Amino acid sequence: MSRTPTRIAAASAGALAMLFAAALPASAHVTIKDPVQATVGSYPTLTFVVPNEREAASTQKLQIILPSDAASKLPNVLAKRVPGWKHTIKKEGGGGIGEGVVSVTWVARTSATSIHAGEFEEFKLTVGRIPDTEKIYFDAVQTYSNGEVVRWDQRPTAEDPHPAHPAPALKVVPAADASTSATQTMALAGSTTPGNESGNSFAGTPALASASAAAFLAGAGALMWKRRRSQRDDVVTSLNS
């Protein structure tokens, strides 16, 4: 007895649902957004996005561990308060505000303010001064209401470019790259100086545009005067004849 199209469609939908459910936890990592990259020497505000990956438990605690290696160390870190959560800043040395921060931990004040299934929360840190390196990794420790602890601290390698629990990462770009990008943006907007690479001869300063307009009007005026004089001479010649 052959299967009907309805039964085949139902079986296919079930298989796809199981595949999606299996893939979902692997994609819902603790990540950094806005920005995903920062310029050397800057002080960006980083947003750590924390999704809840458990159906029967909520996220009650998050710890962000700052990089300790010399190439990625950040001398100044400030934390933003999250409504319904309390945070603790751990420091080692450094007398000034924001100096010597090694980790920041947020804890939900109540079960109602924790991150439940199908939800996410954002945690913000202002960090700097961004050092001259290629990428900065932060370790994240996520604790659930059932006591489960998940560490997001794995770095990609040649053997494993996509680890199961990758550490949140921030790409670093040189200041020269950012300056070049801004110059290119201005060129596309027609805001460069005369002789630019945009190919628009009138994309320079207002003075250049005014001079071009004046030259055009002068030429048009001279042409009209010449035509009127020619017409007047024709009339005089006609009368004399």
What labels would you give this structure?
241 residues; alpha+beta; Immunoglobulin-like; 2 domains; five-stranded antiparallel sheet; four-stranded antiparallel sheet; 3 helices; 12 strands; disordered C terminus; signal; YcnI family protein; membrane; transmembrane; transmembrane helix
Radius of gyration: 33 Å
In spatial order, strands of the major sheet run: 6-7-4-10-11
User: Helical segment tally?
Assistant: 3
Q: How many distinct folded domains?
A: 2
How would you name the CATH homologous superfamily of the largest domain?
A: Uncharacterised protein YcnI-like PF07987, DUF1775
CATH fold-level assignment of the largest domain? Immunoglobulin-like
Q: How much helix, percentage-wise, in residues?
A: 25-40%
C-alpha geometry: globular
Structural class by sheet pairing and helices = alpha+beta
The CATH top-level class label of the largest domain: Mainly Beta
The residue ranges in which pLDDT falls below 50 over 5 or more consecutive positions are: 8-26, 191-217, 235-241
CATH-scheme architecture of the largest domain: Sandwich
- Overall pLDDT: 77
Q: Whole-Å distance between the termini?
A: 113 Å
The main pleated sheet reads as: 5 strands, antiparallel
Query: What is the strand content?
Result: 25-35%
Oligomeric state of shown chains: single chain
Protein name: YcnI family protein
Keywords: Membrane, Signal, Transmembrane, Transmembrane helix
Transmembrane segments: 207-225
Pfam families: DUF1775
